[in-house]
Structure formats: C-alpha cells, structure tokens
Amino acid sequence: SNMSGTIAVRNTYSQGSLTITKSASGLVGDDVVPAGTTFTVKTGNETYASFTYGDMTNGSYTLTGVPIDATYSVEESGAAVTGYKLETEIGNAVELSSSNMSGTIAVRNTYSQGSLKIKKTFSGLKDGDKVPGGTTFVVKQKIGNGNETEFATFKYSQMTDGIYTINNVPVDATYSVVESGADVRWYSLQTTIGSPVTLTSENTSDEIEVKNEYTRKTSTIDVTKIVSGNMGDQTADFTFTATFTYTDGTTSSEPFTLKHGGLKKFEGVEWGTKITIQETKADGYETSVGLGADDPETGATATINPVENQYYKVTFKNNREVEIDTGVPTESKPYLLLLGLIPLAGFGAVMMSRRRRKEEE
C-alpha cells in the first residue's frame, strides 16, 4: 500500500561570531580615546577584519559570520593620547569551533599621567625669621617646540615640609619653575632653581628643587673723636661703651677708648641690631655727638639702627674752653697802661745788658 517513500536530508551551515570590547581608564577632563583607534582582527598572520573605535557602540563591536575552526586575535593601534602614558592589555586569542561558536576578546587601555615634585630648601635665616608664606611658585609647561605656558601656581604656605607634589601632570612635556616673593627683611637673597625636567612615558615623575640662601645684610659703623678748646687734652683717652641689642632680644657690650683723631670701627653689624654708643662723662668737657661731623646733637649718646645704609659715621666732640684770668679788666685804663709798659720794659732790659758788657771791658 505504500510502494514509495522520501527521506529528506537537511544541512544547516552556521558560522560563529566574535565580539571585541574596549575599556579605558585614566583619562581626565575632556580627554577621550581617539575615534580613529584601529582594531585589526587576525587569523594567523592574515587580516580578517578591521574597524575603528568610532565604529563601536558603548565600547563593543561584534563580527558575525565568522568562520569556525579558526583562531582569532586582535591588535590595536592609534590609541595614544597626548600627555598620557598608555598601557594596553589585550585578551588571549579565541578559537571558534562547532562547540564554541562565539567568543570575546577584551582590549583594555590604561592611561596615566606623571607627577612633579617641587622641593624648597633654604638656609641663613635666624632669630625666628621665616620664609614668607606668600612666596609664589609658578610651574611652566612647554610641549615640543611650542611656547611656555603657565601650568600650575601655588604658595609656600601650601607646602608640607617644603614639598609640593602635582599629580596628573601630562607626559611628553618639559616643566620649569619660577619663584617670587621670597625676600625677607634685612636679608640679601640668592635663589638657585633646578634645571627643567621632561616627563615621558618612561620617566613619569621627577623633581625640581628651589634653593634660597639668605644672608643677613650688615653695616660698618665708624666712631671718631674730636677734642677741641684751649684746654682740650688731645693726648687723653676718652672712654666709651657700645651696647648691641639683637633682634632676638639678647644684648652684648664692648668698652673702648679713643684719643683725638682716633677711630673705632665696628664691621659686620647685622641689620636690625640696635647699637647704643655712650661716652663716659669727662670732667670739664662739653660733649656733643651726631651721625656725621656736621651739626652734631648735644649729648653723649648715639643710637644707630642699621636697616638701610651700608655705612654709618658717628662723631663725638669734646670741647674744653677755660678763660684765663689776668686780674685786670681788659677794658680798664690800668690794663691799657700795662700793655704800654711792656715795650718799655723790653727796651730797658736791652740797655742794661749793654751797660754790663762795657763795664766788664
């Protein structure tokens, strides 16, 4: 009743699929993965397919109709972003087969920038003097042959133990530092700044040192003595005491003596030091003193606060005038007669001398 039959043979052929995923970390601000980043899918040494990051959707791209019984790998190029060090990790190759029809290869980009440490050292400050907290540091950046631009600014008060570290510093650029506002009252300042540094993907961190050498400014003080008057003794020693009051509140003193025309020199007197020079009273003398020999002030003490000048001159004057009393008023007639008799007395003495010589002959 059923003399014939049909058997159908149906073959279903299928190929696999391969998904490439892309993730990136470390980019900051407006920096993004370049849309032109290229992914090349290979089987052995042969290129099977290629596409760009711009072709991806949410960091994923799927190839369909991919022949099985083959092994696939991925290469990436053009993912570099200016100013970043790039580290790329690509998943292992995937073998598609009848039992493994799909696979995924992950591409991971890690972007990182460098760090720059600014180190501040100083020497020479004393008596509690400090580096101004407002001392300003400007970090400048130069990329390639371009002009320098300001990259970062901070103040000494923001440093910790003399260190300020800037993170997320773009690599493939050169950095330098400029310092301002480090002057301290009464000091001269010499600043030495380390050479510019270049950050690269191989050298992502570096340091620039700023050295301040402070030297306390000093003055020279000359103390001179002038003795005058008809009874002024220009061979006598006159006694002085110089008292120094330092900025830390301590004091010291130094006695010395001067004759007429003498000089006492104080060298290396630090600015901010108060110097008081006092002469011990000399009986019978009128004493005056001033900064310079012109128009001195009355008194026996000079005070100098060297904060502006490199040289000071202090002159002490001692004058002793004594009126010689003849016993006869100079405006009286007896005084005038006395003056008239002086020549006659001389003439008489000469005549007496001649007479004696004749008698002896």
Q: What does it look like?
A:
By secondary structure, the chain is mostly beta strands. Helix content is 8%, strand content 50%. The chain has one helix and 25 strands. The chain has a five-stranded mixed beta sheet, with no helix packed on it. Strands 4-1-8-6 form a four-stranded mixed beta sheet, with no helix packed on it. It has a four-stranded antiparallel beta sheet with strand order 3-2-5-7, with no helix packed on it. The longest helix has 28 residues. The protein is rod-shaped, with a radius of gyration of 50 Å. The termini are far apart.
Along the chain, the helix and strand elements come as EEEEEEEEEEEEEEEEEEEEEEEEEH
Indicate the structural class.
mainly beta
Count of individual helical segments: 1
Work out the radius of gyration. 50 Å
Number of DSSP E strands: 25
Q: Give the DSSP E fraction (strand runs of 2 or more residues).
A: over 45%
Present the secondary structure layout.
Blueprint: E1 16-25, E2 38-43, E3 46-52, E4 60-66, E5 70-77, E6 85-90, E7 94-96, E8 102-112, E9 114-123, E10 136-142, E11 149-155, E12 163-169, E13 173-180, E14 187-193, E15 197-199, E16 205-216, E17 218-228, E18 238-245, E19 251-258, E20 263-270, E21 274-279, E22 286-291, E23 297-298, E24 301-304, E25 311-319, H1 333-360
